[in-house]
Design a protein that fits this description.
Mean pLDDT: 86
Strand content: 35-45%
Structural class: alpha+beta
Radius of gyration: 22 Å
Shape: elongated
Low-confidence stretches: none
Helix content: 10-25%
CATH architecture: Sandwich
Largest sheet: 4 strands, antiparallel
Number of domains: 1
Order of helices and strands: HEEEEEEE
Number of strands: 7
Strand order of the largest sheet: 3-4-1-7
CATH topology: Immunoglobulin-like
Distance between the termini: 58 Å
Oligomer: single chain
Protein backbone atom coordinates (compact mmCIF):
# COMPACT_ATOMS: atom_id res chain seq x y z
CA UNK A 1 0.00 0.00 0.00
CA UNK A 2 2.80 2.41 0.89
CA UNK A 3 4.59 1.62 -2.38
CA UNK A 4 1.46 2.30 -4.37
CA UNK A 5 0.99 5.62 -2.62
CA UNK A 6 4.66 6.54 -3.20
CA UNK A 7 4.39 5.70 -6.93
CA UNK A 8 1.19 7.74 -7.22
CA UNK A 9 2.78 10.79 -5.55
CA UNK A 10 5.93 10.52 -7.69
CA UNK A 11 3.91 10.29 -10.93
CA UNK A 12 1.68 13.20 -9.90
CA UNK A 13 4.72 15.34 -9.14
CA UNK A 14 6.28 14.53 -12.53
CA UNK A 15 3.06 15.41 -14.37
CA UNK A 16 2.67 18.71 -12.52
CA UNK A 17 6.30 19.71 -13.23
CA UNK A 18 5.97 18.82 -16.90
CA UNK A 19 2.70 20.73 -17.22
CA UNK A 20 4.38 23.93 -15.99
CA UNK A 21 7.00 24.03 -18.75
CA UNK A 22 6.22 25.93 -21.92
CA UNK A 23 7.66 24.11 -24.92
CA UNK A 24 6.80 27.09 -27.16
CA UNK A 25 9.00 29.52 -25.22
CA UNK A 26 11.16 31.78 -27.40
CA UNK A 27 13.99 33.73 -25.76
CA UNK A 28 13.64 37.50 -26.18
CA UNK A 29 15.88 39.21 -28.72
CA UNK A 30 17.26 42.68 -28.01
CA UNK A 31 18.53 45.30 -30.47
CA UNK A 32 21.70 46.04 -28.51
CA UNK A 33 24.09 44.03 -26.36
CA UNK A 34 26.89 45.21 -24.06
CA UNK A 35 30.35 43.93 -23.17
CA UNK A 36 31.93 45.51 -20.09
CA UNK A 37 35.61 46.52 -20.18
CA UNK A 38 38.14 46.60 -17.35
CA UNK A 39 39.12 50.24 -18.01
CA UNK A 40 38.11 53.15 -20.28
CA UNK A 41 38.63 52.44 -23.98
CA UNK A 42 39.83 54.74 -26.73
CA UNK A 43 39.19 52.62 -29.84
CA UNK A 44 37.86 49.25 -30.95
CA UNK A 45 40.42 47.67 -33.28
CA UNK A 46 38.48 44.42 -33.91
CA UNK A 47 35.01 43.20 -33.04
CA UNK A 48 34.29 39.81 -34.63
CA UNK A 49 32.31 36.64 -34.11
CA UNK A 50 34.90 34.10 -33.00
CA UNK A 51 33.36 31.23 -34.97
CA UNK A 52 33.65 32.70 -38.48
CA UNK A 53 35.40 36.10 -38.03
CA UNK A 54 32.37 38.02 -39.29
CA UNK A 55 32.55 41.69 -38.22
CA UNK A 56 30.06 42.99 -35.64
CA UNK A 57 28.76 46.55 -35.72
CA UNK A 58 29.77 48.10 -32.39
CA UNK A 59 30.83 51.28 -30.66
CA UNK A 60 32.33 52.42 -27.38
CA UNK A 61 29.74 53.62 -24.87
CA UNK A 62 29.61 57.22 -23.66
CA UNK A 63 31.29 56.32 -20.34
CA UNK A 64 33.96 54.44 -22.37
CA UNK A 65 33.75 51.39 -20.05
CA UNK A 66 31.77 49.10 -22.36
CA UNK A 67 31.20 48.15 -25.99
CA UNK A 68 27.67 48.42 -27.39
CA UNK A 69 26.94 45.95 -30.21
CA UNK A 70 24.10 46.29 -32.71
CA UNK A 71 22.36 43.17 -34.04
CA UNK A 72 24.53 40.73 -32.07
CA UNK A 73 23.48 37.08 -32.50
CA UNK A 74 22.89 35.78 -28.92
CA UNK A 75 24.84 32.69 -27.92
CA UNK A 76 27.96 33.53 -29.92
CA UNK A 77 31.48 34.19 -28.64
CA UNK A 78 33.02 37.54 -29.59
CA UNK A 79 36.69 38.27 -30.39
CA UNK A 80 37.73 41.79 -29.34
CA UNK A 81 40.85 43.89 -29.75
CA UNK A 82 40.68 47.25 -27.98
CA UNK A 83 42.98 50.20 -27.28
CA UNK A 84 42.59 51.87 -23.88
CA UNK A 85 42.90 55.54 -22.92
CA UNK A 86 46.06 54.79 -20.88
CA UNK A 87 47.85 53.69 -24.09
CA UNK A 88 47.66 49.93 -23.48
CA UNK A 89 45.84 47.44 -25.69
CA UNK A 90 44.20 44.08 -25.13
CA UNK A 91 42.91 41.21 -27.24
CA UNK A 92 40.41 38.76 -25.75
CA UNK A 93 37.35 36.58 -26.37
CA UNK A 94 34.08 37.01 -24.47
CA UNK A 95 31.71 34.10 -24.12
CA UNK A 96 27.93 34.71 -24.33
CA UNK A 97 27.52 34.58 -20.54
CA UNK A 98 29.55 37.83 -20.29
CA UNK A 99 27.49 39.64 -22.95
CA UNK A 100 24.44 41.44 -21.58
CA UNK A 101 21.38 42.83 -23.35
CA UNK A 102 20.84 46.57 -23.24
CA UNK A 103 17.37 47.17 -21.82
CA UNK A 104 16.00 50.67 -22.38
Amino acid sequence: MNRLLLVFVACSFALVCHAQTDSNYVAPHFDQYKIYLSKPAKEIQQLLYEKDCTPINGRISEEKKSIIMENYEPGSKVHIKVFYLDGSDDEFVRSPCFIDPVIL
